[in-house]
Each structure stands twice: as structure tokens, then as C-alpha cells.
Batch of 2 targets.
Target 1
Amino acid sequence: MNATYTVLEIRRLLRDRAALVLTAGLPTGLFVLYNAMWGDDTGATTELMVMMGVFAGLAATISAGGRVSLERHSGWTRQLRLSPLRPLSYALTKSTVALVLGMLAVTLVFAVGLAMQGGGADLPAMGESLALLWLGSIPFALAGVLLGQVGSAGSAQPRGMVVLLGSAFLGGVFVPIDQLPSGMEAVAQWYPSYWIDALAQAPFGESVDVLRAVLTLAAWTLGLAALVRWRYGRAER
């Protein structure tokens, strides 16, 4: 990974205050709203916090597609391809920037959750869950970059929204996965957002098949990284 390019990209992201507020603010606002409706005890607040943390991570990382698409259609990506920047460095940098935004969004949700729970918060479990959410978001950071590398600039946002909502439902963010049709639940277990939520809930006592979760997330990460690298390295179409 090119450290200079990565630092410049992160600095550029942090200067976009409107995007930061919107991306981090929406999941946090939903968490506050849902908690007011259903979070009548610490356990419910914790579960809602993790669910909205997953949604925050998904929304922030997938939103990378919009920025990548704008760069591609403005000609900036073509200029990068003429530079010594390697395809793998490009993939790592763009996904890292997406993860930084994701981590900011998830941390804000957890900070609000900590304030709501006060003395009843399990700080070690929250820290572990936060770390698992960040690591589990890597496939979606790559997916966001890949979405920006295909199609038109105008279609980047709608495509990202479709992927975001589909991933949220398959991850049990809006509806508990056991309440979905059995066929959809079976499909969800092959999808990364399902295991992100499962891993993030595990520090609070939920059971999870860790080996299958790791293998599923690793497979998606490697596959998407290869696609991003391939797409950047080929000629612009």
C-alpha cells in the first residue's frame, strides 16, 4: 500500500464534513429512534446498538462506490493508472479509506450506546464488538470500491443503495434473520453481513460458529480484492 497516497486520501475524506455528518449521523439517529421505541432495558439497547453499528459500517463502506465512480468519470482514475501506483495499492488504499469512514460511523453509534447505558455498559465487550465490526467490514469496503469501478456515475448511488439494503436485510439489521423465510435465512448464511452481525453480537453472549464466520468473510474479502485489482488494472471501457 502506498502510504503517501493513503494519507492524502484520508485527509481528503476528513475534509468532506457533509459526507461525514450524513454517513455517521443517519445510523446514529436510527439507533436513538429505535431505542426510544424498543430499548426498555440494557439488553435491548445493546442489541440495537450492535445492529445499528452493523448498518453504520455497511453504509459507510459501501458509500465508497460513489467517490470512486466520480473519480473514474472525471478522468482521475485514468491518470492514476499512468502513474507507478500498483493495482493492489489502489485497492488497499481505497478500501482503507472506506474502513476509516466506517470506523468513525460505528464508533459514534457505540459512543451514543455507551451514554445511554451509563454504568450498565460492558466496556470490554463493547470494545471487542467494535473491533470485530471494523474487521468484518473489510469485504464491504472492497465491494463499495468495486461498485464505483463499474457502470455510470449516475447509477453508482442507486446500485450502492440496493447493495446496502440487501446486505442489511441478510444481516438481520432491520428484521431478525430467524423471522425471515427459511430459504432466505439459508442464503444469508453464505453472505458476509450475516456473519458480521453474528460476530459483533458474540461478545455479549450470543453463540456463533467462529470458524465458518472467518472462512466466509475471508473468502469474500479475497474474491472482492481480486476483482478490484483486476478492474483497476484493465483498460478503461
Target 2
Amino acid sequence: MFYRPEDGHGLPHNPFNAIVSPRPIGWISTRGAAGDNLAPYSFFNAVAYVPPQVMFASTSAKDDRDGTKDSVAQARESGVFCVNVVSWALRHAMNASSGAHPAGTDEFAIAGLTKADCETIDCPRVADAPAALECRVTQIVQLPGAANFAVFGEVTGIHLRDDALRDGMFDVLTFGPVARLGYRDYARVESLFSMERPDD
């Protein structure tokens, strides 16, 4: 099968998200004039080591946010955001925070999550997340499409839960990161393998 996206795929559901998978979930927390906000984004990744940088992209809009969503609007307003890592234990809370709520709704409360303060930025984070990345916005890029925005940030502080550290390494098997697949599907990291690079 071959198709051009502009012509449509002819399938019951768009396969694009299933092709580009698994994708890490950036559970983005922000603080703005409207209050605290929390929402998951599966268009998310780390993009540089030195200095450490990440990005997340929002691809839809709300009527009360002038062509975008709460996370982008508040990151633009405050200049900061926090990325919270989604563990298996937090999967239902992550899903609960994904609802389309009016601006000013506190998804921490909806999902029954405890907040903690960030250290380097004025922003809340998910207290029980196995890791959190405090970020300062470096740029917001409007992508082709009506409501497509990519938010880039430099990581200024990193939280690691002590029980996720084993022998000096961040051990993902201790908490089972949740990744996004296509459709309504997710994956849990339960096993791993290592390979040496040819030049190691």
C-alpha cells in the first residue's frame, strides 16, 4: 500500500501515529495567570545533550486559547514548563489529565495528583513522577497547519525519584515508562537489551 497524505489513506483510521511509535509521553505542567495546568503530549522528545533540550508539539486548539491549547499558551506566557515522566502506576492519572477542559481548570486536582514545586522555575510538577525536567522556553515554532506549534525548552533542573536509581543509573524497569502508540494504544517498557556501538 502507498498513499499520499494529501489524498487520504482510505483506511478506517489514520495509521500515521501507529507508524511513528512508540513515542515517549511528555506530561507537561505549566503555571499561568489562569492557574496550574497539566496535559500529556505524545509529540515529545529530547533533542540535544549540551545544553540538554526537549520539545513538545501541540496539534489542536481550544476556543478559549486563541488558536492553541493551555500548555502552549501558558508556556508562552510564563516562559517555562516542566516535563513529567509517566510511569505505569500513573497511567490512569495521565489519561484523566488529557481531557479538554476550560482554561483555568486544574488537571492535578482532576487526576488526584499531588503537586510539588520546581526548583529553578515557577511551575508545579507531579510529585510522584519518577523523573521531571524543569525547562525554560527557548523558542516556540508555528508549524504548517492551523494549530501546530512546537515548543522547545532548555532543561534547567532534573528531578529523579530515589527508588528509580540502581547502581548509579536511572533504571526504567523500576517504574515502567508508558509510551504512546497509534489509535488508543499504549505500551509499557518491561524489558530491555543492550548493544555495543561499532566504535565503542
